[in-house]
User: What shape does this take?
Amino acid sequence: MNAIETHALEKTFRGKRALRSLNLTVGRGEIYGFIGKNGSGKSTTMKIVAGLMPATAGEVNVLGASLAPCEAHPAVGTLIESPGIYPGLSAYDNLMVKALTLGIVDAKKTCQELLHAVGLADTGRQKAKRFSMGMKQRLGIALALMGNPSVLMLDEPLNGLDPDAARAIRTLIVRLNRERGVTVLISSHVLDQLERMCTCYGIIRDGHMVRELTAAAVEEECASYLSLSCTEPERALATLTERVRGGCIQMMPDNTLRIDGDVDTARVGEVLMSEGIALSDLHRTEGDREAFFVKLMGGHDVDDSGAIRDNAASRSGVRFSRKGR
Amino acid sequence: MLNFLRADLYRLHRSGVTAGVLLFIVGFCLFFIGVNIVIAISAGEPISAVDFPNALDVTAEIAFLSGFLPLLASYAPTYLVASDWKASGFKTVLVGGGARSGYLASKIAVGALFALVLPGVMLACFGLIPWMLGMRVESVTNISQLLMWWSLASLVGFTYTVVCALCAILSRGETLAWVSTMFVGLGIVGNGFMLLFGMVAAFLPPATDLAQFAIDNMLYRQAMGLGNGTSFVAGDAGALVHTALVAVGWAIAAGALGWIVFRRKTL
Assistant: This one.
């Protein structure tokens, strides 16, 4: 049973299609990175799943239960766009409001525990309107955690945070996932932060799910590899297969060889030279996850020279990667 | 719904709304009594000569026709909904299993509670403060009339709260919610509609009966009646029943419309 599933989800705002037959699958126990450009439909999807907005068409399932339009699942906690905080109340009072709404029995103790968990235990009676952005985000997460949800949806929780606060929130999310088994659906533009915690990714473009893949699959697609061009590619393939261990060697359509794995570049050169095979090019290509995601999102990529390459280039087969030797 | 109600009352308490509203009523009563005392003293009369039951009628007129009783009662649900619009509080209270029906019902219940308590506080102040100051309170003998006025004032005030909660839901923002509340509470809308219906009757004589029917069934018209204080409830019983029915009808209509609008509204 998946934590969240949407089938053919559609949302139209005054004739503009925000979501186009969106299929999203978040497995239980995953930290799912939901990636897309601004206006691609991430927040809209989350709002529909949270019951804050009706879908135009399609189906939403949360923990196996099919949700009616604008129905909220009790096991889902959210932080969407901005934390829904009452600025005139303290952090404790904000949590108490949520606790009373959910009918939590030991509300006071739960609120204290959550404040402690997110590092706001010492804010006392200070009103939330005086909080820094990081404190507000942490309070938003505490609100989302009220009632021990099995699924947490966080929309841009790292926005506007300094590195220290971002790290603290990232650590908190990972801890919740590992210690409490909370499934997390998180959207963010801070890709390097997502890379450090996500186990799965979904890339949305113009309201449509472009691709869903695991972190391992991203790792594989963005792995570094050796690329070589030589005069006799078939003999080079046979030689390297026989004499170089620890790599996966394959011939590419353009007659270059690609060697995946932890293989020493110098050793490859030596082997080929000893066989009398002349090398015209040998370099290591480093995987670039940012470029990989940007390409899938349909955005622009900046190459090493600083020039902007648009999506048309990526569609024509240009590989977005940073070359290094 | 009870969970929402508990949370709403907690919010009103912690944000100081409850205390502010009650203090306003007590302050108003003290001011009004104080003015009467000053007038009595300056006229050379003993304080005990001031007739507070009549003062109550005058106060009721001020309280209802200036709209402050319905306005104060409406303040609570409007504050709750408007601040949810402003702070995206819906995300806090509705996500995680809170049903929209419970949310709306809670606001209506808060309105009912305030509409019931506030006229009671006003009556209590007018009973207790003069008594504590040693003034003449013995003429407040017709308790049944006071209770009847309190009941009707609560009912009409409650209907105002439901209408204002609806306005707050429709507004999608804080400012419009307050503006609509003030307009409803202050009776500006009521006066405007009465003027409009009067003009219809003047320019289109065949529609006179229809215009009169509309005027008679306006909520503001009932508030005007309650503005006459206890002398209103001492009048025609049929008028009292009519007032109650109009209030209930408007409350049901506004509540139903609020639910229709809110149940699928994007938050």
Observations:
- The CA atoms of residues 78 and 220 of chain A lie 31 Å apart.
